[in-house]
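Internal tracking record. Fields below are filled automatically when a chain is submitted to the structure queue. Please do not edit lines marked as system-generated. If the sequence contains nonstandard residues, flag them in the REMARKS field before resubmitting.
Queue: standard
Priority: normal
Entity type: single polypeptide chain
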Amino acid sequence: MSRLLISADVHGSYATWMTLKSLLKPDDILVVAGDLFDTRYGRWGSPDFQPDHIRESLKDMKNKLYYVYGNCDDPSYYPGHVHNLTFEYMGLHIFLHHGHAYLKEHLSRIDLIIQGHTHLPSLEKKQDTLFINPGSLTSPRNGLYTYGIVDTDKIQLMNIKTNTELISFPIHPYS
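SYSTEM-GENERATED OUTPUT FOLLOWS
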């Protein structure tokens, strides 16, 4: 059964990209809540800053990808995507965005909102909606290198350094 592997704020880090790819199982779906490439501001002098290699490897990636632009992504660098995206996974209605812009639209019938931008992991439930920010595997602002997973029965935030779950919620009440 497929899982959603959730990340954000990669900022063109090739090491982070390779880590994400190593976490993916063959049937997994990769969800990136913006700032994958960071070609707007970029750390052009860093040897790890390799947005071109990330873009090239996407051409050969067999896993499905849901990706939205972040405030550091230049849409002309990787055209064909959007800033906000709604999709369905295992009966969950999911809204994906980077989180840097105020949401004007009313999000009715959304079970899960995925966003990045803050580089801080969070998972919470407000009324009937789950909110996840996977944090950042590149440059976390709290020292925790994290990502999210949604599988058949729960949504969780994972600490990659300790391979431990930080927090989780069951998803069956939402499907």
